[in-house]
Structures are given as C-alpha cells and as structure tokens.
Amino acid sequence: MYDPSIWRDYFVMVGGGAAALTGLVFVAMTLHLDDIVNHPVHRHRARTILTGLTAVFLRCGLVLMGGQSHQAIGVEIVAVLLVVEAILYRSLREALSAADLGVVLRSVGSFLCLLIEQAGAVIFFFGATWGLYVVGVGMLGSFVFMVTGAWLLLVGVGATKPAEALTGD
Q1: How far apart (Å, rounded) are the C-alpha atoms in residues 151 and 166?
Q2: Tens digit of pLDDT for each residue in 68-102?
Q3: CA–CA separation, 34 vs 79, rounded Å?
Q4: What are phi and psi of 97, to 5 degrees?
Q5: Is 144 helix (H, G, I), strand (E, B) or coil?
Q6: Residue 78's closest CA among 145, 16, 124?
Q7: pLDDT in tens, 19-57
C-alpha cells in the first residue's frame, strides 16, 4: 500500500535541491549569456540543464500535493517526463552539428535516466509501490547528468575566454 508520508522527506529534499540548483545555474548562465546563446552545444547544455532541474522541481511538487492516488502521481510524472524528453530530443538535434561524441553520449545517458524514471512511474501507476523507488533512482541519476553538465557548460564557456582575450575580440 502506498503511504505518501514515508516519501515526503525524499521529495522535499530533492525538490528543494533542484530549486536551489536551478537558481544558481540560472545566475551562472546569465553571466555568460552571449557565449551560451552563440554556441549550439552550450545552448543545448543550458536548455537541458534548466529544463531538467525545473522538471525535477515540478515532479517533486506534484508528488507532494496531498490527497492524490498512485495513479494520479504516475500520470503526472509521466506527463512531465514526456515534455522533458521532447525538449531534450529537440535540443540535441539542434546541437548535433557542433556536438562531439561525449555530448551525444551524455544526452543518451540523461535520456535513459528519464526512461528509467518513466518506467518506475508506470509501475507505480499500476499499484506497485516499488515503482516509486525506480522513479527516485532515475531522478537521482538525472541529477548527476545535470550537475556535471552545468560544470561542463561553465568550463566550456570559460575555455573560450582566454583565446578571445589573446586576440582582442
């Protein structure tokens, strides 16, 4: 039987962390906005990181809304994940012209975490509480990709700065 009270702390912690990280990443990105906007891979990373973190926050908020059945929570998680997957796919297609294999593999890994989470939500929808553990594992896996992606974005933007400074551009 699903007992929402035992999941409250998990979703509060993950949702709060996602909200805090979203704000920090947003501020860091605004400091390098021109570099991000003008490079397809940087744009891809920025778009998917902000979308991913925001979507984690949304999923946690939806799960924490009281009085919901496991079916409602399963549908909400799947719905948010479908939007995130569409954005990730579209973003990667736009970035492919400038992306190396590492960018593609990281995107595939991130996508797999979303699919794991989605599978967990479907399992949970059909009444197996352990599906929520699968959701949690997928969500934490996504965090790894988002945090390391944010680091790679900032390092990538910073790597172009010394060359520009030397040429006077």
Answers
A1: 24
A2: 999 999 999 999 999 999 999 999 988 888 888 98
A3: 32
A4: -65, -30
A5: helix
A6: 124
A7: 999 999 999 899 989 999 998 999 999 999 999 999 999
